[in-house]
Amino acid sequence: MISVENLSKRYGRHQAVDDVSFRCEPGTVTGFLGPNGAGKSTTLRMLCGLTPPTAGRASVGGRAYRDLPNPGREVGVLLDASAQHAGRTGREALAVAAQTMGLDRREVGAKLDLVGLDAAAARRRVRAYSLGMRQRLGLALALLGDPRVLILDEPANGLDPEGIFWMRGLLRDFADRGGTVLLSSHLLREVEAVADRLVVIGGGRIVAQGDKAELLAGG
Ligand code: ADP
Ligand code: ADP
């Protein structure tokens, strides 16, 4: 379960995130929607302990991310797929992460299969990957430790329509098995087919949140 309580972040005079609160429950997909610059990444970075909040709290399963005994096994995080592991091959990136987490190497092949990166792709360096391939690799890294929670920042960026459709199925399946998913997007169409709930942010503030069907019916 994800809990964000009165979270705020100020950069100088700029209030990037302003008193944001929401929760994500097991078995649900929450779409975190808002235009570029709305404060989505900053919120997710605070949730994952990468940016200190100016005020408020964020926790996963009742603990701050940094206090989780084995974060990679509990929370899968994909924050900026374009920046990861440029000098490694896809397989190496996963192997290093598996070793760090103390996982069996066989998990690497299993997760490559799961995200649809074939043997040829796995042998290539990540810097030669398209953004869509990086998103697939990022998802494989996030899923590597079989976490119960997924936090994904704009995972559909760079995916083609088939890839978006594929990811939708994967995230739905993850939630239907009791997982908790929080994914951000600047496009409603990328999240509306998969999300159960929507949290809408604009200018750092929550604009609306609730059950997707109710929110969309209410206009
Ligand atoms: P989103 O993910 O919704 O596109 P961000 O969280 O990246 O939005 O950014 C929210 C606002 O905070 C933007 O105006 C952005 O320029 C600003 N911002 C984000 N990170 C920093 C930073 N490290 N220093 C200064 N301003 C930042
Ligand atoms: P995203 O595309 O995920 O919203 P951005 O491109 O806004 O991310 O930001 C990428 C990085 O640059 C992040 O580390 C963010 O904190 C930082 N950043 C964003 N906006 C600013 C800003 N106005 N000043 C300084 N750093 C920023």
Automatic annotation (TrEMBL):
Family designation: Belongs to the ABC transporter superfamily.
Signal peptide: none
Residue ranges annotated for the ABC transporter domain, each copy included: 2-219
Keywords: ATP-binding, Nucleotide-binding, Transport
GO molecular function: ATP binding; ATP hydrolysis activity
UniProt superkingdom: Bacteria
Protein name, UniProt field: ATP-binding cassette domain-containing protein
